[in-house]
Amino acid sequence: MRKLLILIFFCVSGFAAEHPGTDEFIKEAVSDYGLQETDVRKLLAGAEYQQSIVDAISRPAEGKPWYEYKKIFLTDTRIRHGIEFWTEHADLIRAVSEKFGVDEEIIVAIIGVETSYGRNTGGYRTVDALVTLGFYYPQNLSSDRSGFFSRELLQYIQLAKEEDLPASEITGSYAGAMGMGQFMPSSYREYAVDFDGDGKRDLWRSTPDVVGSVANYLHRHGWQPGKPVTRRARASQNAAFDMIKRDLKPTLTVAEWAEKGFTSSSELFPDLPAAVLKLVEKDRNTYYLTFKNFWVITRYNRSPRYAMAVYDLSQAIKKGMER
């Protein structure tokens, strides 16, 4: 009923004079974050509820089975664009890889999956996205993430002030992610770097800052250069399928997983920590051993399908570069 009333109100007025919970939000912004009440109130007053954002968060691509999800990212066009991007910025990507200790193909693939190398950075005003999801998060979803988006809105206001960004104009994804690497505001503040040395962290127009920031994000989460990411696994009929967890943080060794019915399709050190991933193909399930580096990719986006898309794209681009 509450959602229906919201929709009726916005259809009539086009925007809210004051979003529900505004006073509580402003109180927190002032007392806990040191922001100016007049600035916050003005920004919120200009933010508009967007039904299309609610629709998008209700059916994310990450909800698709693997056989459908991979078709979005593993395309000849995206692979070609990745090869072109890597070739054009080869010296930069090599320097970033050496500085942060992150494999070049993974950096390239993440930018490709996120925005197809800057071709699609999102057309929603970031303030609209964060206000819509922070103040009007759909109640029919399994979990309420309004608190997360409210906190990101607070981070966004601080970020705009720190980086001298026009807070009412910046655009990004329906979830509030920004720039070529699609950083949420909190990630932008914590992990973005000024790699071109111009005194700004520009994740829209500075390719050095974008490449450096993506690598720094992975580095800070524990990327292990040159180490494996994932390997195809064979599952026995009596394998311990109930031990497969969504988190994918390695808890058992390759040898221990083998004892539980999951064996690698290639030779690995038996004491290498691993997890097991199940992916749904059109006519069967496939299984993979995943390692610390795979888990690190899921810190960028929690979906295991996202991490597998990044890895598969990275390998396709790398193969193309070697031709």
Beta-strand content estimate: 5-15%
Q: Please report the distance between the alpha carbons of the first and last residues.
A: 59 Å
Helix content: 40-55%
Instruction: Give the SSE string.
Output: HHHHHHHHEHHEHHEEHEEEHH
**Unreliable stretches covering 5 or more consecutive residues:** 1-16
Query: Structural class, from helix and strand content?
Result: alpha+beta
Rg (C-alpha, Å): 21 Å
Per CATH, the class of the domain at 2-59 and 122-206 reads Mainly Alpha
What best-fitting shape do the alpha-carbon axes yield? globular
Largest pleated sheet: 5 strands, antiparallel
Please report the number of helical segments. Answer: 15
Task: Briefly note the CATH topology name of the domain at 2-59 and 122-206.
Answer: Helicase, Ruva Protein, domain 3
What does this molecule look like?
- The longest helix has 18 residues, at 146-163.
- This protein has a domain at 2-59 and 122-206: Bacterial muramidase (Helicase, Ruva Protein, domain 3), CATH 1.10.8.
- Helix 2 (22-33) packs antiparallel against helix 3, helix 5 packs across helix 15 and helix 6 (76-88) crosses helix 15.
- The chain contains 15 helices and seven strands.
- The chain is globular, with a radius of gyration of 21 Å.
- The chain has 323 residues and is an alpha+beta fold.
- The protein has helices at 2-13, 22-33, 37-45, 51-58, 66-73, 76-88, 90-100, 104-115, 126-135, 146-163, 185-191, 207-220, 254-259, 292-300, 304-321; strands at 124-125, 171-172, 230-235, 252-253, 262-264, 273-280, 285-290.
